[in-house]
Amino acid sequence: MRVDLFDFDLPQELIALRPVRPRDAARMLVVKGSDAPLEDRGVRDLPSLLRPGDILVFNDTRVIPAQLEGRRGEAKIGATLHKRLDLRRWQAFIRNAKRVREGDQLTFGGGVTAIAEARHADGSFTLAFEGDEPVEVLLERAGTMPLPPYIAGKRGVDAQDREDYQTMFAEKDGAVAAPTASLHFTPELIATLDEAGIGRETLTLHVGAGTFLPVKAEDTDDHAMHAEWGRIEPETAARLNAARAAGGRIIAVGTTSLRLLESAAQEDGTIAPFAGDTAIFITPGYRFKAVDGLMTNFHLPKSTLMMLVSALMGRERMMDVYAHAIAHKYRFYSYGDSSLLLP
């Protein structure tokens, strides 16, 4: 499909630069099927919008301070870690990469150094961090939170982002972007969901920096997704399958949860245990097998995530949804408002 079919104009003032407080006070646009009227609701309404026996699936990845500023000799460079390769090596996107050659030592803050071992076909590098300290310790010393470019381009990253850009479910280090749909949840909201008989499960997908890369191809067939690592434990898969067999709906909280569930799904809709990379690219025409709904924020024009929600609800339907969201001044992107999509 043509990528420009997923384009729209967004007023810059609707890009949220900070989250609302408390987190569950955000607005939520509810979209049911293809003909039902849109409902302007709030995240706190979620327990009344779902049914007992439904299961919300969260991503428990934890964002690491993966943005590094440093030098190669006298040249300033920046590095955004994208995907862990092993204990000391990460694939990274480099700013000012034309000044970096294979074998160069890159020097970051706090005495952290890495060797640019290999350049990949997409222009990224393998960085091998030097020394004996765990890479996580080095990043805590030298790195900052990797805010999306549409926020970082408008203001500096600060200490508040260390808390704001982390979900309440964050447990497993490895993401360089937050699963932002889960940012809206609070212990109070979870307690209300529990009382309503709505279940929850977690999986892990370490979100990579590729999630922010624009689609440069003119046709979706020519776009290559970056792989991300994920895991669904056998016990989790078994509980999800049992819940669905009992009539419950599987509602993915965030596109990251959805993409991993669909990667693990069998043709009959059964969710299998999963551990490994996924580069699934969901566009209109895709047949969903594992999920019955999605809670997600509002996405960038012409992005792979705009294509994903269009696959779930229909492209024309989602273009109408986004026109409504813009007209009613919903807040967009990572720190913005939410939507609940129930096809």
Plain-language structure description:
By secondary structure, the protein is of the alpha/beta class. The protein folds into two domains: 3-63 and 164-342, QueA-like, CATH 3.40.1780.10; 67-143, Thrombin, subunit H, CATH 2.40.10. 22% of the residues lie in helices and 27% in strands. The chain contains nine helices and 17 strands. The strands form three sheets. The chain has a nine-stranded mixed beta sheet with strand order 2-1-17-16-14-3-12-13-15. Strands 5-6-7-10-9-8 form a six-stranded antiparallel barrel. It has a two-stranded parallel sheet with strand order 4-11. A hairpin with a 4-residue loop joins strand 8 (105-108) and strand 9. Helix 8 crosses helix 9 (315-327). The mean pLDDT is 95.
Write a short abstract of this structure:
The protein is an alpha/beta fold.
Q: How does CATH name the architecture of the largest domain?
A: 3-Layer(aba) Sandwich
Q: Output the CATH class name of the largest domain.
A: Alpha Beta
Structural class: alpha/beta
Gyration radius over CA: 20 Å
Could you state the oligomeric state of the chains shown? single chain
Provide the spatial order of strands within the biggest beta sheet.
2-1-17-16-14-3-12-13-15
- The number of distinct structural domains comes to 2
CATH homologous group name of the largest domain: QueA-like
Protein name: S-adenosylmethionine:tRNA ribosyltransferase-isomerase
Pathway: tRNA modification; tRNA-queuosine biosynthesis
Pfam families: Queuosine_synth (PF02547)
Subunit structure: Monomer.
